[in-house]
Predict the structure.
Amino acid sequence: MEQELGQAGMNALKGLEDRLSRFIQPVNPDPEFIDTLRTKISHPSTVILETGKRRMGFLVIAAGLVTGVLVVWLLSHHSAKED
Amino acid sequence: MKKPQQVNAIVIDDTNAVNLAVTGNTEAFTYLYEQNVARIYNYIFYRVGSEVDAEDITARVFHKAFDHIDRYEEKGIPFSAWLYRIAHNLTANWYRDTRRKKEVSLEDQLDLPHQGDLPERAVEQNQEKDLLLKAIRRLPQDRQQLILLKFLEDLSNAEIAIIMGRTEGAIKSLYHRSLLSLREEFDTLDTSHQQPEL
């Protein structure tokens, strides 16, 4: 690295590192923001999903259809056996 | 170091906070939040240059960490390193979205004090800082991350290697390349800044 850059190049990089050390200093976040976020994290809101009536209706219809098909199949199976 | 918290007869401190948080202990996660929020905020602030965006992304980092804490496995990676990785990914998303919208001007990017009130030397220093931070933000994301972890957090190459998921040697090499490209970017900005307006 040093061979590639030469002394002048190394000095320039050293100067850049010095500037980075000088200018990149920690900043203080807004205390209000810190407090608000802490509250949100320590008291996470519970999300309750309501099951809609429409969804329940579909389930009842689906269950009825399945039952109906099953009854028809059982009857036809039974009558086929008797024949 | 922060004082240990005692909640429901369990003392939460640096040694057990992560394990408790992984099991869903909210108080332990709050403890980890307080230990890490300022450093994560700082990292993001220097990456994006705006308080509002830094607060927004910091909040997302901790919400994401809270939601996925059960996925955290220690395996030699400190909790803070895990947070930095989340912060890096969310900041990368922010860059992607922001670039789609517009090129943000330098004035928009930096929350500097009103320069008219400052002595000449302070104004010069502010301009220098301004250009340097802008030059950093022009670097590829991994180089920005490396420079900020080194100068803001004062982390060693070994610690940065853990956060960035690379070898120590790779970090050392990337650091020198980052300095060289940063110098180029800074010189380019400085030259264009000094050119008189026509």
Q: What stands out?
A: The CA atoms of residues 115 and 127 of chain B lie 9 Å apart. The longest helix of chain B spans residues 168-194. Residues 103-108, 112-116 of chain B have pLDDT under 50 and may be disordered.
